[in-house]
Amino acid sequence: MASFLHGLRAYAKGFATTLGSAFKKPITVQYPEYKTPVQTRFRGKHMLMRYDNGLERCIGCSLCAIFCPAQAIYVEAAENTDDNRRSPGERYAERYEINMIRCIYCGYCQEACPTEAIVLGHEYAFSDYTREALIYTKDMLLVPDPRKATVGAGAD
Amino acid sequence: MTGGDIIEAVVKSLIIIVALLTAFAYMTLYERRILGRMQLRSGPNRVGPAGLLQPVADGVKLAFKQAITPRGVDKPLYLLAPAISVVTALSAFAVIPVGPTYNIFGRAIPFHLADFNVGLLFVLAMGSLGAYGIVLAGYASNNKYSLLGGLRAAAQLISYELALGLSLVGILMISGSLSLTAIVEGQARGLWYILVQPLAFVIYLISAIAETNRAPFDLVEAEQELVGGYHTEYTGLRFALFFMAEYINMVTVSALAATLFLGGWHGPFDLLSGPWWLLAKIILILTLYVVLRATLPRLRYDQLMRLGWHWLLPLALLNVVLTAIGITLLQ
């Protein structure tokens, strides 16, 4: 008899839980319309940063590519000349490619970078239909020039 | 039988079939929405306003799936099994009285397809025949999980059919008729039978859930142990047919419960006319189904058997005895 009552109590508790939950507000976030904010240190899509005067921070040293555990980064450097000055250092990145589906978003590139040129941003929704389309080139990663930028554009 | 009678019967059959298929489609949505809310989710709400077109999307998807016939199946039985399930599920509803007799187009039209004097027996018989669909599907699929599911269906049917039938005997003793229309009218004159036979109502509900293989008695398709049970080897529309049968059986069983215990199409006040009262009662019982599924874990096989034979069957017999004593004392 005691076990029978115990069982009844358990049933009552179960039904109270389900029926109670039915009248609570669902905790679902309706994703495409509402997005939960990411943490400040969230590691999403990479950005190649610039100095305030518009020069690229990247000096083409390839340290990011060396540190990358997934070998997702490819850097090809070129010399800066006086008529074509892209970065304050001797060299700049002629080509800079990241394979976004090889990348494991560990942030080691960001830590290895001596000039804080590569930063992992907050964007995370960039799926595509082909593998080729997900190899991001320098112009896709580089943030816009702050001197030329219109209001509201640029990195966050 | 005149031509008018035949037209009337055909039209009524079509209405019943269409209504049951719609009920099946929207029962799936209703169940998923309620289950979602009970798990603090919102359930499917993307297709159409509030997800109302979700059943259409599901149907289209299933229709375009490849119909796979695995090697080594017993082909005639394999193809016949889903048909048996659906046909028996659909035909069981024929004897349920949906409303009183209305005058439409100058004809007195009774709102039930058939009212034979063994109506209740017919519903129970169709319910038992429906189990053949499941057993044959399990047998013909050439898959050990399907076979186990089919065997469980047979065992479950035998254990719960007894309690189900006996729980209704009390009602038959009071109403003195097997015709569902007569039973509804009997309740309209006096009390609803749930007040006279509360024990029978509980036994009926539990057995009915077991009969329709719904949670927590869904051992027949227990995903975690039997993959999908009897419908493991079915795809596309054939699979959909089993689903259809299961949900239509739920609706029929709920309609029967409403008819036998909750006064059928009669309501305490005349705000809603007959069929709407019945619909409201059916939805109430279907909601109970969903709440049970959300709350209770599946019974183990031996627990299922013990519940059937050690509890429900003796209680149903006790109910018959008590009813007999009651009737004798009141006379």
Automatic annotation (TrEMBL), chain A:
Cofactor needs: [4Fe-4S] cluster
Any one Pfam family match given in the protein's UniProt record, by short name: Fer4_7
Residue sites binding [4Fe-4S] cluster 1 per the record: 58, 61, 64, 113
Annotated 4Fe-4S ferredoxin-type domain residues: 47-78, 94-123
Catalytic function, reaction form: a quinone + NADH + 5 H(+)(in) = a quinol + NAD(+) + 4 H(+)(out)
Assembly and oligomerization: NDH-1 is composed of 14 different subunits. Subunits NuoA, H, J, K, L, M, N constitute the membrane sector of the complex.
Protein name: NADH-quinone oxidoreductase subunit I
Upper classification of the organism: Bacteria, Pseudomonadati, Thermomicrobiota, Thermomicrobia, Thermomicrobiales
